[in-house]
Amino acid sequence: MSSSSSSAPPRALKIGIIGFGPFAQFLVETMLKQGHSIRATSRSDYSEQCARLGIPFIRDMHEFLQSDNEVILLCTSILSLSEVVKSIPFQCLKQPTLFADVLSVKEYPRDVLQQALPPDSDLLCTHPMFGPESGKNGWKGLTFMYEKVRIRNEAICSSFLQIFSSEGCRMLEMTCEEHDKLAARSQFLTHTIGRVLAEMHIEPTPIDTKGFEKLFQVKESTVKDSFDLFSGLFTHNRFARQQLKNFEIAFENVKQKLLNRMNE
């Protein structure tokens, strides 16, 4: 595990985005400010959003792959990744290309892409540990995790990573496995607690403690994300199942301690 940062401006890249939902749009705003050339494709129609940003929206995947992308960034949902990758006509690529993803789980996209990508294409697995809300005032000090799974063109990979390091991100290199282990204990557990609180319909009261206010913030932030994301964090992170089991055991232990004390 290592961390690094750089203030050098990134070289302008030709970047193709597959999947153009809110998170992709959030990333692209900074990429455009840095001078990168962007084009997007998606199964949904994002032509209006692309027009507003001043970038082409290419509906046809064949045309998209033939547009000389140096980097293709996958910004799909976790649950749709496999289907999207299967639909990509990789034979249309004009040149060896760096494929990168920004999914919140890492072993799963690594395995899917390793099986599907042409042998001459590079693979970088990443997870920006922030989003439109936490990154709205800049990315300085926010964590960007990555693993160089298969990199031969170091120049392109370095230029892509500089998109984030030049904004002041805390660059953290670790394996996809280590990421998923840690994410199950942090991100997935946070989402689980937030969803449980949402099921309880907790709301602010006139006598809230600071602790409750923080719990309410956890509930509010997690339900802003789709249930598909939460489902993906569970389904496609093999360490999440054990964390859910640990949560259940811990809850039962606390409950039993309370009942034992009451009976005393």
TrEMBL record:
Residue span(s) of domain Prephenate/arogenate dehydrogenase: 13-264
User: Looking at the record's lineage, which domain of life comes first?
Assistant: Eukaryota
Ordered alphabetically, the record's keywords are: Oxidoreductase
From which residue to which does any coiled coil extend?
Answer: none
- A Pfam family name for this chain? TYRAAT1_C
Q: Which GO terms describe its molecular function?
A: oxidoreductase activity
What is the recorded name of this protein?
A: Prephenate/arogenate dehydrogenase domain-containing protein
Organism of this sequence: Cinchona calisaya
